[in-house]
Structure formats: C-alpha cells, structure tokens
Design goal:
about 270 residues; D-Maltodextrin-Binding Protein, domain 2; 2 domains; six-stranded mixed sheet; three-stranded antiparallel sheet; 10 helices; about 25% strand
Length: about 270
C-alpha cells in the first residue's frame, strides 16, 4: 500500500509537471505568434524587400529571353528609387499571396488587386494603379447561330463559370449570385490561369470565364471568337497591398507612386501594356 504521505508527494509533483507543461506551451505559442516587424525602416536597413506578383500576359511574363510586364517594370522602378534589392516571387493564387503577406513571407503584393470592403478590413492598399473591371468571356456564337451571347446578369443563373484558383473574381461572382437571387456555379481551375481559360472558351472547351477587361481586350485581338462585351462588375480600383502593421511602408510606396504616375515613364508603361 502507498502511504498517504507518499501519495500526496506524487500528486504535488504531478501538479508541478502539468503547470510546467502549460507554461512551456504558452511560451512556445507566444513565440510562434510573434512575427518580425518588416516596415519601411527595417526593409531599408536590411537592403532588400520581398515582393510577390502574378504571372500573366500583362503583369509579369517572359518574351524570348527577356522578362517584361507592367508589374515587373513598376517593381524595378521602385527598386531604382529606393536603391535596394528586390526578391520577386511569382504566385498566381491571390489568397496565397495575401496569406504570405500576413505571415511575413512577403512585404508587398505587387499585382492589380481589385479593392473591396472585405479585403480592406485585413490589408492596406496603395494609391490606385489603374481602373479596371471584370467582363464575361464567352463565344460570339455557341454551338450554332441561334444561341446569342449572354447580356443580362439574370441570364447567368445556373450557368457554370470557370476561373483560376484563388481568382479575385470569385468574390464578385458570389456577390452577383446573391444579387440575382440564383446560383452561379463557380469552378476553380487549379491548373490554368485566366489567359488559358480564355483560350479554352475560344476553342469551345468551356462556355464561360471571367477576366479583367484590360487582359480580355488584349487577348481578343488574337482570339476573334470570343465575346467580351458583357460587364460583370462596375469599374473598380486596382492597387498593391501591404500589411496593416506596415504604415510607413504604405506611406513610402504611396509617396513614390504618386510622383511616378505623373512621369512619362509611367504613361509609357500604360500605353505599352494596356
């Protein structure tokens, strides 16, 4: 039989062990949740910045042996202005971009992000880069001449629209479904991006996708089969994103961007890519 005295000692030791484990767990949790601050001053001090953008026919792409793109050239203009090294990461999924931003993997999401109330609650956005809108991409004639392109949002009820995984257009399509009071089936494609999905519409593999008007206009020159006349959204602001806890970085980018947008260099970029 274990004596009462020995049993009491065991209980006390067990309590001490449990309390110690809880304290260690809380300590580890606090350390895990602490993220290094990466505001403007820290970025300039370390001499480099991590920026993520998307790979597409306007923002960032390779032509021959040359890297080009609206976002790519903007990033390089900022690099020259600040005199720091910029590590560019390519990731098309917007949600992955924003998650990486929150986790401190990236300092800026440098792509044309449609600014909406949902995102404004979690991120800070720069001065507008461009004004854009979403358009429905469909064939000019489907199957036969008797099927006309859709022109009213109500006609999207029960239709299936293919978009790239994590596309910013998903939020708009979900809202549009509520507006028309009916289901719009949104299929997220994990393999292809907006440009490839537009090509699939042109070839008849899928019926509908949604695309930025600027990109759609450019693609329509090479794909005369597609119709891009039906708007899905109103004209909206598109900007870069930074973390809410990087206010000095936001102000610094905005200060540069405001001045840069008045230059011939920026106007040439707009003419070149849009």
């Amino acid at each position: 039989m274990i004596s009462k005295k020995r049993l009491s000692i065991y209980v006390i030791l067990l309590i001490i062990v449990v309390i110690t484990m809880i304290m260690l767990r809380n300590s580890l949790t606090r350390k895990t949740n602490i993220r290094e601050i990466n505001d403007y001053n820290e970025i300039i001090e370390r001499g480099e910045m991590n920026v993520v953008t998307d790979y597409n026919a306007i923002g960032h792409f390779i032509s021959g042996d040359t890297v080009q793109g609206f976002q790519y050239e903007l990033i390089n203009a900022l690099k020259e202005e600040w005199g720091i090294h910029i590590n560019i990461f390519l990731e098309n999924n917007l949600q992955d971009n924003l998650n990486g931003l929150q986790e401190g993997k990236y300092d800026i999401v440098a792509r044309s992000i449609p600014v909406n109330s949902e995102l404004k609650g979690s991120f800070s956005f720069t001065e507008p880069l461009i004004l854009n809108k979403l358009v429905l991409v469909q064939r000019k004639t489907q199957y036969n001449d008797s099927i006309e392109p859709l022109r009213q949002h109500l006609e999207l009820a029960k239709k299936t629209i293919h978009v790239s995984e994590g596309s910013p257009s998903i939020f708009r399509l979900n809202n549009l479904s509520h507006e028309i009071g009916d289901t719009i089936f949104v299929v997220q494609n994990t393999t292809y991006e907006a440009e490839q999905l537009v090509m699939m519409v042109a070839s008849g593999e899928i019926e509908y996708t949604v695309c930025d008007e600027k990109v759609a206009l450019q693609l329509s020159e090479e794909l005369p089969e597609i119709d891009i006349e039906t708007d899905i959204s109103f004209t909206q602001i598109e900007s870069w994103a930074v973390r809410i806890d990087s206010p000095i970085l936001l102000d610094s980018v905005n200060s540069w961007l405001t001045r840069f947008k008045e230059t011939h260099e920026f106007k040439n970029l707009i003419e070149k890519y849009y």
